[in-house]
Amino acid sequence: xxxxxxxxxxxxxxxxxxxxxxxxxxxxxxxxxxxxxxxxxxxxxxxxxxxxxxxxxxxxxxxxxxxxxxxxxxxxxxxxxxxxxxxxxxxxxxxxxxxxxxxxxxxxxxxxxxxxxxxxxxxxxxxxxxxxxxxxxxxxxxxxxxxxxxxxxxxxxxxxxxxxxxxxxxxxxxxxxxxxxxxxxxxxxxxxxxxxxxxxxxxxxxxxxxxxxxxxxxxxxxxxxxxxxxxxxxxxxxxxxxxxxxxxxxxxxxxxxxxxxxxxxxxxxxxxxxxxxxxxxxxxxxxxxxxxxxxxxxxxxxxxxxxxxxxxxxxxxxxxxxxxxxxxxxxxxxxxxxxxxx
Length: 342
Prior knowledge:
The chain is of the alpha/beta class. The chain has helices at residues 6-21, 26-33, 37-50, 72-84, 99-110, 116-125, 142-163, 226-239, 258-265, 286-297, 305-320, 323-328, and strands at residues 166-176, 202-209, 215-220, 245-249, 271-275. Helix 10 crosses helix 11 (305-320).
């Protein structure tokens, strides 16, 4: 019987019981169907207690959850603790949840420990995965961030709609030759080595995007200064001569410099700057353009500054050609507040 599938075993049980009901002796039924009389006795008891449904094959193996160390409510409590608190707040030290700290938390509060494989299964069952966390500045003001997303930005958007203007987000990024990012497969226990030029050089880029999927950018080798910022802003308003632009930027010193403010004051019919809350760059969807750029650059073979500049320009051109990709930067959890049609 064990060599038969669950469906085949169920069919044998049904046929045996039908034969016995028709008058076939138990011993003869056991011989004809190749089963033991003890099995027939168990099947008869099951049917007498639960009817024909009791003869059906259930799911093989142990019942789900029968051997778990934690109840459903305990797993829910563990999940809530990992999501809402950092280890330091629970007396475990540090900011990152590691398997060791999770196991220590389980031992302290529930008296159980898991093997590495068992803990990974538990985390997966609770809908948790091992991730690289986003960074947030301790100095960020949650109240200011809340005010920006709920009050300030909606007011900017309403003004732009009334003026038939555009709302756009801009940001600057510096790329260095010695920066290593991205991941690759390698032998366990041996960190892979990526050979890069030992020379240090870099380029800068500045881009501007909108929820409509439009994007404009510039790449330059010089430092990011008020002059380069103004040059880029001139290009931006030149691309939209019929519409005013409400441009949202972070609080970089260049963006708040006297030269930039003076130039913007002279062009109030064409552009107006709005500043994100301090220490809250994650609210800027254009930051995701920078992250995308660095991720793609990590897989490029670059030997000199000219190649770095050319690769940067090529990647940004590739992003610019796909408005749907640009609109996708407004769908991240922390940038979704800005998703509109202005």
